[in-house]
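Structure first, sequence second, as always.
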């Protein structure tokens, strides 16, 4: 089996299996989860995805041809036997187990940490491991999620006690739902949520994930002292405008693993595996070949090769990677 990176990920045996691929026509393609850099659905292809991912991208409403596959259920695509297993990343997000000649696993975006909403990813043994390495250097080692929740709640509590208004930043699909739940569960507050967040919160709830109560933002800033919104919309102008409107001091915090790049307070609440989790996955999965993709792919491949003694390289380097390429003595 060969694995390639070309506008997505392609597994090649006698035929090609496309995963999270763009730029294809009249093909079958797997979608691992609903984030826009993975779900590139267009009308000419047939997509295999979990029912939850299908709901988050509103695939049926948009008229895409989809085959919804439950977690754990085997399915065949062009000679490949496949299975989605939860990746612990966001609702419906799957790792993919692929059998065709070799036994491969694609983690896609994943985390091992359990969150207030989901269990962490299960580590899958395989021969070829294609692993997402967003945080593939030791600098990115996150505290346990419970500790981060506690820190965050302490900070929010301080702000509310000082009569400040709190803006929390989290991606509208995934992080914002966790924030909604955390604010409900630990503070007993119903936050205002940006309309984009509201829409995805509803999908989570329809899929059986209870988030507590929340209010859609719609000229109703007085309804809560906490607002959850996508981080890219948060800037000084917005905070200033909010402050003028509410007549209160406004403090912002962003939930992200990329803390050092933010000008605001951050909490390392990431939906991606940190360096320690990446290393744990590789060791326990015990593959013959590791292909890294995304983020610190060079650095992590070099770590795997040198420190764990397993052949590894970034998937994007070179056109092809197969077990045979690494069969050096
Ligand atoms: Zn993602
Ligand atoms: Zn991603």
């Amino acid at each position: 089996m060969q694995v390639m990176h070309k506008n997505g990920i392609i597994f090649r045996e006698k035929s090609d299996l496309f995963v999270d691929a763009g730029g294809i026509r009249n093909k079958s393609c797997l979608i691992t989860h609903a984030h826009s850099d993975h779900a590139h659905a267009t009308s000419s292809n047939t997509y295999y995805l979990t029912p939850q991912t299908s709901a988050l991208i509103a695939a049926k409403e948009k008229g895409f041809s989809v085959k919804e596959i439950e977690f754990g259920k085997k399915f065949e695509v062009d000679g490949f036997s496949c299975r989605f297993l939860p990746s612990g990343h966001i609702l419906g997000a799957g790792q993919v187990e692929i059998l065709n000649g070799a036994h491969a696993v694609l983690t896609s975006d994943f985390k091992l940490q359990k969150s207030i909403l989901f269990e962490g990813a299960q580590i899958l043994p395989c021969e070829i491991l294609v692993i997402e390495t967003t945080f593939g250097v030791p600098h990115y080692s996150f505290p346990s999620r419970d500790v981060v929740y506690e820190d965050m709640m302490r900070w929010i509590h301080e702000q509310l006690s000082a009569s400040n208004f709190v803006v929390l930043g989290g991606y509208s699909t995934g992080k914002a739902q966790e924030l909604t739940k955390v604010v409900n569960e630990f503070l007993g507050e119903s936050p205002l949520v940006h309309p984009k967040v509201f829409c995805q919160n509803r999908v989570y709830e329809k899929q059986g994930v209870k988030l507590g109560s929340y209010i859609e933002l719609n000229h109703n800033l007085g309804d809560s002292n906490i607002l959850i919104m996508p981080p890219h919309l948060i800037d000084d102008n917005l905070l200033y405008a909010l402050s003028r409107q509410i007549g209160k001091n406004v403090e912002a915090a962003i939930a992200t693993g990329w803390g050092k790049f933010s000008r605001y307070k951050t909490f390392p609440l990431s939906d991606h595996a940190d360096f320690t989790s990446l290393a744990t996955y590789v060791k326990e999965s015990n593959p013959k070949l590791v292909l890294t993709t995304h983020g610190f792919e060079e650095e992590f491949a070099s770590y795997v090769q040198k420190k764990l003694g397993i052949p590894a390289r970034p998937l994007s380097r070179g056109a092809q990677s197969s077990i045979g390429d690494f069969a050096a003595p």
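Margin note: The radius of gyration is 21 Å.
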